[in-house]
Amino acid sequence: MPFARKPDEQNQRGRKREALRERKNQQGQKARGINRKAMDHVKLYGMWVSPYSRRVEWALKLKGIPYEYVEEDLRNKSQDLLRYNPVHKKVPVLVHDGKPITESLVILEYIDETWTDSPLQPKDPYQRSRARFWASFLDQPFSRDLIRSAGEEQEAVKNEHIERLRVLEKGLEEDFSGGTPYFHGEQPGFLDVVVGSLCCDHEALEEAIGINLFDPHRNPLLFRWLTVMKDHPVVKETAPDYDRLVAFFRRLREMAVNSSKE
Questions:
Q1: CB-based burial of residue 256 (10 Å sphere; 0-12 exposed, 13-18 middle, 19+ buried)?
Q2: Which residues pair with 46 in a beta bridge?
């Protein structure tokens, strides 16, 4: 009579086969460059003109994370946006497997900690602290105050921004002078994403309101870096249409000027 395996032994052998199959599947995914967490459902609520939305897009694309993009009209906010960000009611909002993450700098760190391949942050703790410091230093749009001001007030605001760029230039030169095309190395990192999202549209802003913020003689490091950053495939892919952006800034300025006359 042939030997019959006991049920427990059969179950154990079956579990081993399943574990072996799963290991092989994981090894195959790893060999093909597939991150299991990248297969989770990721949705980004943003707006085409928002530098904060764009920096999150850049981070997702730089890490190769598939995502669904939802364009928001901030004059008619969707119920999803209000539900996911009931406090500030603004973009960007990243929804990962149904869980919302808000505020762009928080989102960038969440992305980097959740999908650990191709890290955006420097490995060195001190370098990470400097990157966060300069990101926080610059983390406000250049366009807002410049568009809303005019005459002497606008000149004062412009000079304030020029001084901030001077301080940033000096700080970046001291903290990130590694001789690489980007602040963190050969590919854009956390600080590149933050600064780039605020600065890459400067030409459209300057044309729309008739000022000059960036100058190759005044900001040689930033100017060289901006040239490289704007030529990166991810930045070029997500860049808004130039003429549309100029028209948007001009329309905002017209609305601000008319509102100040009332």
A1: middle
A2: 71
For the beta carbon of residue 230, count every other beta carbon within 10 angstroms. Answer: 16
- The model's pTM: 0.83
Residue tagged 């154990």 (tokens): 12
- The number of beta carbons lying within 10 Å of the beta carbon of residue 147 is 23
Of 247, 124, 143, the residue nearest 185 (C-alpha)? 124
The model's pLDDT over 62-121, given as tens digits with 9 standing for 90+, comes to: 999 999 999 999 999 999 999 999 999 999 999 999 999 999 999 999 999 999 999 999
Q: Which two tokens stand for residue 74?
A: 């901030």
Residue 257 amino acid letter: V
Side-chain-side CA neighbours of 143 within 13 Å: the count stands at 25
With b for 16 or more beta-carbon neighbours within 10 A and e for fewer, the 62-87 pattern comes to: bbebebeebebeeeeeeeebeebbee
Rounded to an integer, what distance in angstroms lies between the CA atom of residue 219 and that of residue 172? 11
Convert the pLDDT of each residue in 139-164 to its tens digit. Answer: 876 677 888 888 888 899 999 999 99
> Exposure string (b/e) for 148-177, b if CB count within 10 Å is 16 or more?
bbeeeebeebbeebbeebeebbeebeebbe
Contacts of 15 (CB under 8 A, 6+ apart): none
Q: Using the 8-state DSSP alphabet, how is residue 185 labeled?
A: B
The span from the CA of 131 to the CA of 194, in Å, is 10
Q: Which DSSP string do the residues of 91-148 spell out, in sequence order?
A: S-EEEETTEEEESHHHHHHHHHHHS-SS-SS-SSHHHHHHHHHHHHHH-S-SHHHHHH
